[in-house]
Design a protein that fits this description.
Elements: E1 7-9, H1 26-38, E2 43-45, H2 50-53, H3 55-64, E3 73-79, H4 86-100, E4 105-113, H5 117-123, H6 126-135, E5 139-146, H7 150-159, E6 165-169, H8 182-191, E7 195-199, H9 212-221, H10 227-236, E8 241-247, H11 251-262, H12 269-283, H13 306-318, H14 327-338, H15 350-354, H16 361-373
Parallel strand pairs: 1-2, 1-8, 2-3, 3-4, 4-5, 5-6, 6-7, 7-8
Helix pairs in contact: 1-3, 1-11, 7-8, 9-12, 10-11, 13-14, 13-16
This protein binds iron/sulfur cluster (2 copies).
One iron/sulfur cluster (SF4) binds next to helix 15 and helix 16.
Length: about 375
């Protein structure tokens, strides 16, 4: 397995159209991929539906077609939400090979195991299926990403010791949170001797845009360190964490991440104390802890852009100045020309059933509607 603790998540690639993640800026993506490799990092993580189903194609164009196969490792995933029958597993897998242009995947994951998806994975025999792919050499290492509580994780790892690694959501805000329970899940994975890959170390950008008071606190201590570097170092600084994925969307992030991760320094006691203070401060200001994963948007009959609205709402509540006008209000109004308004939610609950953060989305949208529409 890899030595360096940083992976390139290909889920938030730079886009030429802010309302269309599939319109990937390929020239910028190529430069970002090249820089990442030049700086000695090798792990790339994509998935079937990232970037409006175009991330795997982008991996081919920016990475696979332009670099020797032994200079990088590629991970992708099978998502239960796209499986109707057993035939779909191979259909998707073969399309993934074609989309990415590789003949094997270094890492292959069952995507987002949780209370609902595990029924599909069991019913369609995906656990034996993924092992068979490994036996045939089409996949080198198998694992799964996970968004649920520690009890189910323990059950899955007990029943399936064949998995080599687990991908967990770990960041300093979720470490002790009741909803995500990162610490407990990490401890379960460690108990089962599984390596951990971290996803969402910056919590979908939330920990890159911390409240002003937290930013000041971090900057006073280390003026040169970027705000996201605190979050990524926290995630990497656990013995059993083998790799931290960062969903990078611009060159600035690639340069910053690869710099401080090339010479990774664990957090000292004083830095850990500052993070604890940051958690208390941020928890007092974030209204809706949405990570922006977008799992909820595909099935919404009203085409409501849930993550963008929540992000604008959170940011608006964190505005320190009283101006009577905020850019968030304007962004919201612009977005509702393309997407359904928060007030148009019909309460069908499809989004809540798939939200890995178990958010009360319907309630949240009602708050968003009150905030931005009235
Ligand atoms: S509950 Fe509302 S936001 Fe969620 S899927 Fe249904 S209409 Fe869309
Ligand atoms: S509401 Fe839930 S599913 Fe939707 S983007 Fe946020 S965290 Fe993801």
């Amino acid at each position: 397995m890899e030595n360096k603790k940083l992976g390139f998540g290909l889920m938030r690639l730079p886009s030429l159209n802010p309302n269309d993640p599939s319109d990937i800026d390929m020239e910028e993506t190529k430069k970002m991929v090249d820089t990442f490799l030049e700086r000695g990092f090798t792990y790339f993580d994509t998935a079937w539906m990232y970037c409006g189903f175009k991330s795997e194609n982008a991996a081919k164009e920016a990475l696979v077609d332009r670099h020797p196969r032994d200079s990088y490792t590629l991970a992708t995933k099978l998502h239960a939400g796209f499986l109707q029958n057993k035939e779909d597993r191979d259909r998707i897998f073969n399309e993934q090979l074609e989309k990415t242009g590789v003949t094997y995947f270094d890492y292959y994951l069952l995507h987002d195991i949780n209370t609902h998806s595990i029924e599909t994975y069991n019913a369609l025999d995906c656990f034996n299926w993924i092992q068979d792919k490994k036996e045939k050499g089409l996949v080198k290492h198998i694992g799964f990403s996970y968004h649920d509580g520690p009890e189910l994780l323990d059950k899955v790892l007990t029943e399936h010791p064949e998995f080599e690694f687990v991908q967990l959501q770990i960041n300093y805000l979720d470490w002790d949170s009741a909803g995500v329970q990162s610490r407990e899940c990490y401890e379960v994975a460690t108990k089962h001797h599984k390596s951990v890959i971290v996803m969402e170390p910056v919590k979908g950008g939330t920990l890159a845009k911390v409240p002003e008071s937290v930013e000041k606190m971090f900057k006073n201590y280390a003026p040169e360190a970027s705000i996201p570097s605190w979050a990524i170092r926290f995630a990497a600084d656990h013995q059993n964490v083998w790799l931290v994925l960062s969903g990078m969307s611009n060159m600035e992030q690639v340069l910053d991440n690869t710099e401080f991760m090339s010479d990774f320094k664990p957090l000292n006691e004083e830095e850990m104390n500052l993070i604890e203070r940051a958690v208390a401060e941020i928890n007092s200001t974030i209204a809706i802890p949405c990570t922006g994963c977008s799992y909820c948007t595909d099935g919404c009959p009203m085409k409501i852009n849930i993550p963008k609205y929540f992000s604008l709402y959170n940011a608006d509540l964190q505005e320190v100045e009283e101006k009577g006008w905020t850019p968030q209000g304007e962004y919201y109004s612009n977005l509702t020309k393309t997407f359904g308004k928060a007030s148009e939610c019909i309460g069908c609950g499809q989004c809540e059933a798939v939200c890995p953060q178990h958010l009360h989305i319907i309630e949240g949208l009602s708050e968003v509607a009150k905030h931005f529409e009235q």
